[in-house]
Amino acid sequence: MTLSDRESDIYEYLLAAHQQGRDVVLRAREKKRGLADELHQLWPHLMLGPVAGSCTLQVPRRGAQPARTAEMELRFQAVTLAPPAGKPGLAALPVWLVLARETAPPPEAKQPLEWLLLSSVPVAGLADAIERVQWYAVRWGIEVFHRVLKSGCLIEERRLGTADRLEACLAIDAVVAWRIHHLTYLGRATPELPCTAVFADDEWQAVVAFQTRKPPPQQPPPLRDMIRAVARLGGFLGRKGDGEPGTETLWRGLQRMDDIAEAFRRFQAIYKLPP
């Protein structure tokens, strides 16, 4: 399965995926020469059709906009796209369209969500349409993962000389980016989980002792508290309107945590402190 954003609404790309038997779900741009010219005409056509149903999406925080729950109304239809003008030699392309529109966006939202999705996977009913929207929504997590790779791991700045070296470095950076992404998700989805599920004892003990200037407690803190403590090491202020830590402060905080935990282990070994 390939999920693509608006830069991928290219007829040849969709046609190649169809001919190769690859599953694709992508979002169409509202106005663009080429493929989207025809899709732009289908937009009002879909709007004239009945609403098939609705679904809810958890929209993550984006800049100053807080996270929210979006109620989406859905319409869908099977169509056959004609090849672009000037390329009559290309074959016609059967696709399924899913139009998802946010019905009641909050006042602080800059604009309501509205997605016109093209799916090579058949959409036979409402359940299929909801599934395609949920598939595309996964891209938010994919974007966060790639942002950590680029901004945190600085993968684009690597100058390693050969492709083999770059691939080896990318394999390590991908694990780091996944860990940060996973921690961010767990801190919001399972905040009461004991932090020992993802942090070693000397890691959480070192951070708590460093920040409180007291011996660590016997019981480990909940995961949410530990993640916020690590994020504070990376510059997270934890003010009332700040929400939960993001990947950037968590990335910087984890780097500091590694140094603090190493110092904690050294002091334990030197002074034979109890674990």
Give a brief description.
By secondary structure, the protein is an alpha+beta fold. The protein is built from eight helices and six strands. Strands 1-2-6-5-4-3 form a six-stranded mixed beta sheet, sandwiched between helices.
Structural description of this entry:
The chain has 275 residues and is α+β, with helices and mostly antiparallel strands. It has 2 domains: 2-137, Transposase Inhibitor Protein From Tn5, Chain A, domain 1 (Alpha-Beta Complex), CATH 3.90.350.10; 161-271, Orthogonal Bundle (Transferase Inhibitor Protein From Tn5, Chain A, domain2). It is 45% helix and 16% strand. The protein contains 8 helices and 6 strands. The protein has helices at residues 11-20, 35-48, 126-137, 139-152, 163-189, 201-212, 223-233, 247-271, and strands spanning 2-4, 24-27, 53-59, 68-81, 93-102, 114-119. Strands 1-2-6-5-4-3 form a 6-stranded mixed β-sheet, with helices on both faces. Helix 4 (139-152) crosses helix 5. The mean pLDDT is 84.
